[in-house]
């Protein structure tokens, strides 16, 4: 059975990569709420990953959380490049020692 047209379509479930490299994330973490929407922004000029996609909060001053994982991001990057309305949702957060484990879903908004 197809999802109702108003429901977003889940395209990818993954962890946000690079959270250990984001300065200030430990201090920002209490503001992150499971279920909150997140923004996806292409970083087409990345020298490390041709398909880089940043994951940010949707605050007035967005906080950069990390990236979609390399190797799982090409389709999402191509859809963003083509102008499709994509966003993410935080589904889980937990500290594992000094690593903030952030699990998201990438959504196609319909």
Short descriptors:
2 helices; mainly beta; Alpha-Beta Plaits; 110 residues; HIRAN domain-containing protein; single chain; 11% helix; nucleic acid binding; six-stranded antiparallel β-sheet; 6 strands
Structural overview:
The chain has a 6-stranded antiparallel beta sheet, with helices on one face. A hairpin with a 2-residue loop joins strand 5 and strand 6 (99-108). By secondary structure, the protein is mostly beta strands. It has a single domain, classed as Alpha-Beta Plaits. The protein contains 2 helices and 6 strands. It has helices spanning 25-28, 74-81; strands at 9-15, 37-42, 53-57, 64-67, 86-96, 99-108.
Instruction: Give the overall shape, derived from the CA principal axes.
Output: globular
In N-to-C order, the SSE pattern is: EHEEEHEE
Quick one: how many beta strands? 6
Helix content: 10-25%
Strand order of the largest sheet: 1-6-5-2-3-4
Q: Report the biggest beta sheet as strand number plus sense, adding barrel if it closes.
A: 6 strands, antiparallel
* Poorly predicted parts: none
| Overall mean confidence score, pLDDT | 94
For the record, give the distance between the C-alpha atoms at the N and C termini, rounded to a whole number: 16 Å
Number of discrete helical segments: 2
Oligomer: single chain
Strand content: 35-45%
Which structural class fits the helix and strand makeup? mainly beta
CATH structural fold name: Alpha-Beta Plaits
Tell me the name of the CATH class: Alpha Beta
What is the radius of gyration?
Answer: 14 Å
CATH architecture: 2-Layer Sandwich
The total number of structural domains is 1
